[in-house]
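G., the chain you wanted modeled:
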Amino acid sequence: MNVHDGDTSPPRQATRERLANDPNVEVLIIGAGINGAGLFRDLALQGVDVLIVDKQDFCAGASAAPSRLIHGGLKYLETGEFRLVAQSTRERNLLLRNAPHVVHPLRTAMPTHSWFGGIWPSLKRFLRRPARIDDRGVLISEVGLTLYDFFGRHFRSMPRHSVLFGRRVRESLPDVRNDVKALHTYYDAAITQAERLGFELIDDGCRAHRGALALNYTTLDSVTLGSAAPEPVAGQQAGQGGTEGVTLHFSDATGEAFEVRPRIVINAGGAWIDEINRLLGRETAYIGGTKGGHLIVDVPEIRHQLDGRMIYFGTPDGRICLIYPFMQHVLVGATDIRCDDPDQAVCDDDERDYMLEAVRYLFPDLDIGAERVRYRYSGVRPLPRSDADDPGQISRDHAVREDRLGEAPLLSLVGGKWTTFRGFAAEVADDVLARLGRRRDLSTEQLAIGGGHDYPHDEAARDVWLSRVAAACGGDRRRAIVLLERYGSRGEAVAAHCEATAEGQQPLASLPDYRVGEIDFVCRCERVEQLGDVLFRRLPIALSARLTPAVVAEVATHCGAALGWSAAKRETEIARVHAIARDYHGVDLGPSDAADSADAVSQTETETETERGGQG
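Predicted structure as C-alpha cells:
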C-alpha cells in the first residue's frame, strides 16, 4: 500500500458531515501528539476506521517542545533499562531512513573530567538506588559507549564511538574548561521539525484510508453510556472488543456539537491523560509529568566551535545538559522539574538562568547573558507517576493502562518519547487489531513518513530531484535545495504550487527565503485553522527565532487570503500570536494592530490560556 495514493485528506467540513451521517467509528483517539499521531497512522494503514481529535492543533502540546533529539538514551544504561536502549537505538536508525528530510545524524561530544569518576554512583543507579553523578570519568564513559554501540548495531548507518585526549581536546574545543581530560565522540540523531513530522503522520493516515478522519481544535464535552451500540464490523461478533452504548460528545472551534460512537477509546493525551479520563468519568493518577525548558541562543562563538556537534555534558549538580547547533543558532536544554499543571508550563527566567549558567560552566571564558536568548519553549513530559526524588530517574519507557467506558475499552498511553513513537504505536495497534478481530496488513517498520516518501537518498538521485524541481523554480537550484530541506520530497508539490501563479513565486518581504505560494500551499493543503499553526508548527518560522511583527503581519495576510479570513479575523489571529509569543516563548512583539479591539483581545486571552493545553 502506498500511503501517498489518492488526493489530500478530506477538508474539515467533509469530515464533520461524515460523522453527522454516521457517528460510528471503530477507534477514537483523543490527543494528536506524537503517540496519538503515530497510532492513528498505523491503524489507518491497516484499514481501521479511526478518528483522532485534539483540543488544539496537531502536535501542539509537549510533542512540540522536545530537546529535538532522536536518541537511544545513553543515560538509561545507568539504570539498567537495556530493553529501552535497544529499542530506542533501533528506532533511531529506522527514523534516519524513514524520515531523512527532518531526522539527521548528530555527532555528539561528551567531555570527561577524570579517569575513574562516577563508577560507584553508576553502580548504585544500576541497582536502582538513589545517587547523584556529577562526574562520569573516562572509564565509565568508555564502558557505556561500547554498550551503546552494541545496542545500536541493528540498521546501523553511523560510525561507532571514538575518543580524544589532552592537546587534541583543546584543538577540538578551544574554549572548553581546562579540566576536561578526554572528549568522547558518538552518534545520535536530531529532528529539525518535530511538529511537521507529527502533522505528516496524521496526513499519511488520512491519505491511506478513507475511513481515517482527523479533527484539530475539537473539544471533548461529555460521555454518555447506554446508547444503542454500533453494528459489529465484518467478521466480528456482536459485543466483541466491545462497545455497548458509548457516545462521546464534542464541539469544535465554532461551538457546533457532534457525537462519536467508538468501539475502542484511546487516551493519548500525554500530560493531560488524567484530566481527559476525568472528563470521561474515570478517576486516574497515571501521570507525574516533568517540565523541560529549552532555549534558542545566539552565540556564534560557540556555534563555530561546535562544528555541527552536540555536546552532552554533566553539571556539578548532577544534571545532564546539552547544547548543539540549531537553525543558525544554538539550542540549549533541558530542565527536568515536576509540574502539576501542564497548561501553565513555560520556560521561566529561573530555568533560563540555570541553563545559561550550565553553558558558562562548560565555556567559562565566554560571556553568555540573557540578552542572547532569542526564543524559549517548554513542555511537560508524560511520565508515569513516581515517588522518585530525582525526576531524572523516572523511566522514559511506555505502558498502556486499561479502564472501561461501559463495555468499551479505554486505553491510556502513558510515557514514551519521540524516538520510540513508532514502536509504541505498533504495540498498541497490534493490541487494538486483536480486539477488533483483525490482523496486521502492513508493517510501519521501514515505511517512509511524509516528505521521506521517494526521498532522494544518494547523490545521483538527489541531483536528478534538484534538477527537476529547479526547473519549476525558474532554474534556481538553491531554491530547490531549500524546498528539499524544508519539505522533503513534498517540496516538489510546493514548487509546482508556487509556479502556478506569478504571485506564488514572489518572496515574502519579511522572509525572503519563503514564497507567497508556500504559505498558500500550507494553508490550503495542511489543515491550517489558525495563524499559529503556520508560524509555530507547519513551518519552522518561530522555531528559527525569526518572529517579528512584520513577519506575523505578512504571513497573516497570506493565510487570510488562502482561508477567507475577514479583516477582523486576521487581526484576532495576529493578536493571538503576539500573546503566545510573549507568554510562552519570551518573545515580545509589542502591541498588535488588534490591541484596540476589546473583542479580539478578550478572545486571544481566552485561547492563549489553552494553547498549550488540550488533548495531546
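The chain has a mean pLDDT of 87.

Shout if anything looks off.
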